[in-house]
Design brief:
Blueprint: H1 3-24, E1 27-39, E2 46-51, E3 60-63, E4 67-74, E5 82-85, E6 110-116, E7 122-128, E8 140-145, E9 159-168, H2 173-181, E10 191-194, E11 215-218, E12 223-230, E13 237-241, E14 246-251, E15 254-261, E16 263-266, E17 271-277, E18 286-292, E19 304-311, H3 333-340, E20 368-375, E21 378-380, E22 383-385, E23 391-393, H4 400-405, E24 426-428, E25 432-435, E26 439-447, E27 452-456, E28 461-468, E29 486-487, E30 489-492, E31 496-503, E32 508-514, H5 517-521, E33 525-531, H6 561-565, H7 571-589
Parallel strand pairs: 1-4, 3-8, 9-12, 11-19, 20-26, 23-24, 25-33
Antiparallel strand pairs: 1-2, 4-6, 5-7, 7-8, 9-10, 12-17, 13-16, 13-18, 14-15, 14-17, 18-19, 21-22, 26-31, 27-30, 27-32, 28-29, 28-31, 32-33
Helix pairs in contact: 1-7
Length: 591
Amino acid sequence: MSSSTTLFFFLVNVSLLLTLSSAADPFVSYDFEVSYITASPLGVPQQVIAVNNKFPGPTINVTTNNNVAVNVRNKLDESLLIHWSGIQQRRSSWQDGVLGTNCPIPSKWNWTYQFQVKDQIGSFFYFPSLHLQRAAGGFGGFIVNNRPIIPIPFDTPYGDIVVFIGDWYTRNHTDMRKALDDGKELGMPDGVLINGKGPYRYNDTLVPDGIDYETIEVHPGKTYRLRVHNVGVSTSLNFRIQSHNLLLAETEGSYTVQQNYTSLDIHVGQSYSFLVTMDQNASSDYYIVASARFVNESRWQRVTGVAILRYTNSKGKAHGPLPPAPDDQFDKTYSMNQARSIRWNVSASGARPNPQGSFRYGSINVTEIYVLKNKLPEKINGKRRATVSGISFVNPSTPIRLADQYKLKGVYKLDFPSKPITGPSRAETSIINGTYRGFMEVILQNNDTKMHTYHMSGYAFFVVGMDYGDWSENSRGTYNKWDGIARTTAQVYPGAWTAILVSLDNVGVWNLRTENLDSWYLGQETYVRVVNPEVTNKTELPIPDNALFCGALSKLQKPQVIASAASSINENTLELLFTWLIVCAWIHIFQ
C-alpha cells in the first residue's frame, strides 16, 4: 500500500472516530456577550445587564451528556463570573463560576467555560455571581433534555416555555451594593418582573400606564411545559395562572410525583416544571401572577408581577381581580406542608435508564453531620455582616481550588465548625472538610426573621425533613427516607429547620450558600472541599488550559492574548477540518 493510500485511510479512520465520538457526546457551543443596556421594566430607565443584548439572556438548550462550551465576553466595567446554577460540573469545579473556584473574568476580556452536563436532566438557569450583578439581570435558562432512549414520565408537551419571576429594584446594582456596604438594608422591592417585564395594568392605581408586560400565546387544548425560575433578590413568590391547574412534573433535575396545584410558592433560586393544559374557554385572556409571600400584603401590593396568558382564539382582554394568593396569614404551616408534598418520582427514569428511586438514600449510613445556623445580620469588626454558624465568609484573593492546585498555604482554613460557635461571630475564610464518598447530613437552621433558600453546587441533595422550632436528634424520626425530593436549592422557613442528605461523590470545591443576594453578599456562605486522596483524572479533571490567575498567583497570568486563545474548537470546526484533510488526501492520491 502506498504512503498516500495509507494517509488517506488514516484520515478516514480519524474522521470516523471523531464522528462516532461526537455522536456519543456531541459538542454544543454558545457565544455570550455580557453588557449593559438601558431598559425600563417598571417604567423607570435604568442600567440592566443583558446577554447578547437580550434581557433575560438566551436559553441554553442541550441534552444529557452533551459537552458545552460557552465563550463569555465581558463588556461590563467590572469583573464577571457566570454561575450555572444546578449544573453539577461533575469532576470539574473549575467551571462552576464562583469565587471559590474561579478567578473573575476582567472587564473587556473573554473566557470560555467548557463542561459536560453529565448524567443530568431538567430545568436550571445561569446568572452572574459577582458584585450583586444578578439584581441587574444577566440571567437565562438552561435546559437539559433527556436522551431519546430515556422516556420522560409524561406525554411530550406541545411546547416548552421558560418563565423568569423575581423581585426587582429600580436602583442600579452598584447603588444597592453601596447600601449594603454602608450597613443599610435594601428595603422593599419596587416590583416583580416576569420575563424581564413589568406588570400588566390590572389596577390603574397600583400600575402606571405605559409598562411593557409579558404575553404568552398558547393554542387551545394543548399542554405546555412551563419552566419557572425565581431569579430575584430575596423575595419568595407565589406563582399561579388564573383558572388553570399547575401539574408539577420536575424540579431542578428530578422528576416529581405529579400533583396538581392551583398555586405554588417558589423561593429565590428555585426552579420548577409544570404541565399546563389550555383547557379553558377563550372568552378572555388569563392572568399569570407572581406575588410576594410572607410579607405585609397590603403594604407590598405593588410587589406583584402580572403577565398575560393568551389563547390564539382569545376574544378579549383579561379583566377583574387577580386570582387570590393562599389565605394563610394565620397559618404558617400551609406553605411548609405544600413543600413537604413535593416528592421524588421513584419509578421514573432520570438521566439514566434505571429508576430514580434505585438510589436508596434512606438506607445509607451518615458519615458526617453539620448543623448550619443563620441569624439576623450583625456587626463584625464594625461592619454589618451575615453569618453561617457564627462565621461570615471572606472570599480569598486566590480561589480555594487554585490555591490547592499550587499548594499555597494560608489561603483558607479547613476548620468550619460542625455546630454553631458559642463565642463572638467572626469573619474569615473557613470551609468544610468533606470526605470523598462520605454521606453528609446537613441541618439548615434559620433563626432569621425572613425566608432563606440554600443552594449547594456540585450535587443534588435529598430534602428529607423540615419543621418549625429548633432541630434536635429526635427530629430524625420525622425524616422522609424513601421519596424526599432530590434538588439543588431548598427553602428554610424563618424560625424553622430543613434537613438535607448529600452523597459526596463529586471531587472539587463546592459553594454552599444562601440564595438571598443581600445575605450572600454579606458573607452567608461557605464551601465544601471534597478531595480524593488518590490523585487520578478519573475523579477530577485537570486544571483547564485557559485557567485565569489572580491573587497570589497573578504573576502566572498571561496578558489579554488569553482572550483569543480561549475560543473553543467546536464540533463543526473539527468536522470541517477533517473534511478538508480528506479532500487534500484524495487530491494527493489521484494526482
